Amino acid sequence: MPSIEENLGLKEVVTPKEAKFEKWRNRVGFVLAPLAFLLIYFASFESLKPEAQNLAAIIAVVIIFWICESLPMPVTALIGAALCVLFKVADAKTVFAPFADPLMFLFIGSFIIARAIFLHDLDKRFAYGVLSLKWIGARPSRILFAFGAVTAFASAWISNTATTAMMFAIGMSILAFLFKHEEETGIKINRNYATAMMLITSFAASIGGLMTPIGTPPNVIGLGFIRNLLGAEISFFKWMMIGAPIVVVLYIFLYGYLNFLAPAGVKEIPGSTEMIRREKAELGKWTRGQKSTIIAFLTAVFLWVFSGLIALFAGETSAIYKAINSRLPEAVGAVIGACLLFLLPGNAKGEKAITWGEAVKIDWGVILLYGGGFALGVLSFQTGLAEEIGKNLTSLLPLSGEFGLLIASVLVAVLLSETTSNTASANMVVPVVIAISQTQGINPLIPALGATFGASLGFMLPVSTPCNAIVYGSGYIPLMKMVRYGILLDIFGAILIIAILSLLTPFLR
Q1: Alpha-carbon distance 385 to 54, whole Å?
Q2: How many CB atoms lie within 10 A of CB 485?
Q3: What is the pLDDT of residue 6?
Q4: CB atoms within 10 A of CB 509
């Protein structure tokens, strides 16, 4: 089935050199993965049990395939799980149990709601509604700020890639209007402004995903490891208490330097306000499907934050909080919200807000990738592999203690996310960080959260995230500008995550 990007006519543009490198990268995985498997499988590790050594060989294969993208990443995750049963790391019931984890249903429910938002053009209605505000007017700097802010907020609730695809189309229409206006009036628009508009589309989408647990897959993956390996619960509300400050500060920094380094060159562009209002008017009046989708979405959000609000006023040790939290975990809220879409009316008579045919078009690949990666992480603890890795890495790390490990975990996650997907980065780094923390005898919660947040950074290259790849295809972003502007955001983002998690440590315990 076509992806959102294909529906919008978006294609990643790559140079012949980049295409050649990608082809080489994909093929080399088929050579390195079997070699790594054989070397580890037949090596002599006296400190490892046979199951742990077999798992180490399998994880090596999975990591190489993820980095090289020799196979689709969800397929690699499934192969890893199957190999664990085949080589007797654990029985099938144990290996495949993470695929039925409650967080899988948080993914499924939230993805179905996001699908309905996209189908009923609620994302466009929200975007054009904000951009048409009087305060924004015809000033390019304010358009840039509002455009990026809308992108970040939308990305907190629907996938970063879907948000980027939608806002990319809107951004390109705004730029087309500006350059047409330039031809008609002779008022020159700095081409750097187009670069800023495209970069803020991608970067703000990645930043906004940090705000909520459902904003981006690494969030859910990190929470799954923290809950299952540490027994610690971080509610939707508590996550937002951490994520929202990070998003606000990081977005302001992003807007500040893009606005300064890539200004439009003019203070006002006559006619831009009318163009945006015209686009908004074309959406027409609110439809029944849109109203139904809003009801389902707000119901899910209310159920996600309700137990957190109870904890805020009654305390996490209160009986009422424990009762509500046990009955309304985030997965249940997502499923209830999604199910409402099948009950509430759609646009046509007798039609519902979403059909099953549309609901099944969600990104099942991410769900399978989460299940496979989560299974490997849990098995690494059950077999003792994680503990052994933790002991060996502890002696190599120049940093020690909770704060030192927090710094190391964020930096490693950020660097890894530049070369492989954010989801794979979270799957690889978070369980290792937990193991190292336990080996050093420190609380793993803060370093694990640092790795989770750090995995969602990665702004330097078109291959770092699908969001970057989409906007790079616009032709408005020279590669070195993406690298220069991206590394600024990587560095500031890493420092910000470390600072905020350090400040909020007492609140998180």
Answers
A1: 10
A2: 23
A3: 40
A4: 9
Kindly report whether the global pTM for this prediction surpasses the value 0.90.
no
Tens of pLDDT, residue by residue over 282-292, are 888 899 999 99
Can you list the residues of the chain whose pLDDT is less than 50?
1-13
- The pLDDT of residue 358: 92
CA dihedral 2, 472, 373, 357 (to 10 degrees): -20
Which of 343, 287, 373 shows the shortest CA–CA distance to 77? 373
Amino acid sitting at position 319: A
* pLDDT per residue as tens digits for the range 219-228: 888 888 888 8
Give the angle 103-368-373 at the CA atoms, nearest 5°.
80
- Say what the pLDDT of residue 244 is: 92
Give every CB contact of residue 359 below 8 A, 6+ residues apart in sequence: 112, 115, 338, 341, 342
Residue type, 437: S
Note whether 417 and 425 are within 8 A (CB). yes
Residue written as tokens 């996650």? Answer: 413
Q: Smallest Cα–Cα separation from 218: which of 489, 416, 61?
A: 416
CA–CA dist 290, 293 (Å, integer): 5
- Name the residue with tokens 């995550």: 497
The token pair at 163 is 């948000």
3-state SS track over 394-430:
HHHCCCCHHHHHHHHHHHHHHHHHHHCCHHHHHHHHH
Helices (H) and strands (E) in the chain, counts: 25, 0
Q: What is the DSSP letter of 345?
A: B
